[in-house]
Specification:
The chain is mainly β and 377 residues long. It contains 3 helices and 26 strands. Strands 1, 3, 4, 6, 11 and 14 form a 6-stranded antiparallel β-sheet that branches. A 6-stranded antiparallel β-sheet has the order 2-5-13-7-10-12. Strands 15, 17, 18, 20, 23 and 26 form a 6-stranded antiparallel β-sheet that branches. The longest helix has 13 residues.
Length: 377
């Protein structure tokens, strides 16, 4: 009953796509015609249509689905593109994914290039991450506000704002296959993501309406993750199971639950890329957490200039929720930091890590709630 209540709450109040309004674009993949226009970046990768009659496990709803098949190897870039026309009225991306392995998919919207004063100006790219579990269907309803500006594409900025009247493409890529395949250290953390992989895609919509019940915070507190979406954007290490949860006492009422097992040589953590500037002027990162047992929690952050900073927190056991504050001025440089100026600059934060450093072996669980940037700690 607790799981059913959670599903109803998330689907009914946290993320709602209006079903009475016609989608701007809707591909059900019920027929082979619906895969037209979907193009792999590499010729070696392929897009195919699957009928429910031939393989029901690869179809979420209706009569068929689209399957993107690619080979992950060191230096590979298995991207799937879909060019779109006028999508000015869109407010959200709504899609179902199923992957062969648990992974993280970057979902991206790209603006068209345009001529400005006789010169070609590159369109900006915006993206977010959707975490999937192997062989399970994942539903992601992604409002435009969740898409973050890609600052790593090397292009000059246009206006730093996602303009729906300029969107020209939708794209997706299995990010772990890009960075992990062929890398021994990352394979140790995330598992093997090399070889032939598949993403099944079903019921793709660019939806014209999105309603979210917003969490109300004090003026000095900016949300980083309120966990009030129907998808997860944290990337777990191998063997860490993530699922949405209820977290009483938070502004949204939702949280993220982790189950894992500690053992010698095993790394239990989760990571999330953060939009550059999200922590601007912040003094601390505040969050709520509960644990099944007392643990030592490493909180790590990474900056755009290579700076890495850590803090170790003692989290009580018994599943009692506690409020934690990671004061940036009190964090220590990590052993592998490459900070260019020797100081932590919150506006440069690009990645958050939570890791269990407790030496004792055994099963453990954590639940996180509302992570915020606090400007007046």
């Amino acid at each position: 009953m607790r799981f059913l209540s959670l599903v109803v709450l998330i689907a009914g109040s946290a993320s709602i796509v209006a079903q009475t309004t016609k989608p701007v674009i809707h591909r059900t993949f019920d027929t082979v015609a619906d895969i037209e226009g979907w193009k792999p970046f590499r010729d070696a990768d392929k897009v195919t249509f699957v009928k429910r009659a031939d393989n029901a496990n690869d179809v979420h709803s209706g009569d068929g689905s689209m399957v993107f098949t690619y080979v992950a190897s060191k230096g590979s870039l298995p991207v799937l593109f879909f060019e779109v026309g006028d999508v000015t009225e869109m407010k959200a991306v709504d899609v179902w994914f199923k992957t062969d392995a648990s992974t993280a998919i970057i979902v991206a919207l790209g603006e068209r290039d345009e001529q400005v004063d006789g010169k070609s100006q590159k369109g900006e790219s915006y993206n977010t991450i959707v975490t999937t579990k192997g062989h399970e269907w994942t539903h992601a309803t992604i409002p435009l506000e969740d898409f973050q500006l890609d600052t790593n594409d090397g292009n000059p900025r246009r206006n730093g704002k996602l303009d729906t009247n300029k969107i020209g493409s939708f794209a997706m890529v299995d990010i772990l296959s890009v960075f992990v395949a062929g890398d021994e250290n990352l394979t140790y953390i995330f598992g093997d993501h090399s070889g032939t992989q598949r993403i099944c895609i079903d019921d793709f919509q660019l939806a014209p309406a999105f309603v979210a019940k917003r969490a109300v915070l004090a003026a000095n507190r900016t949300p980083i993750d309120m966990f009030n979406r129907n998808y997860i954007s944290w990337v777990p290490s191998k063997g860490v199971d993530l699922k949405q949860s209820i977290m009483p006492g938070t502004a949204s009422g939702f949280g993220l639950h982790l189950d894992y097992e500690r053992a010698a040589g095993k790394f239990n953590a989760m990571f999330r890329p953060i939009e550059i500037g999200a922590f601007a002027n912040a003094k601390s990162m505040d969050f709520q957490v509960s644990s099944s047992q007392e643990i030592q929690l490493i909180v790590g952050i990474e900056e755009t200039d290579g700076g890495k900073w850590n803090m170790i927190l003692s989290i009580p056991g018994g599943n009692a929720a506690s409020k934690q504050a990671v004061v940036f001025a009190e964090m220590k440089p990590a052993d592998d930091t490459k900070d260019s100026d020797g100081k932590l600059s919150p506006e440069k934060i690009k990645l958050i890590t939570f890791a269990d450093a407790t030496p004792d072996a055994g099963k453990a669980s954590l639940t996180f709630g509302e992570i915020v940037a606090n400007k007046s700690h």
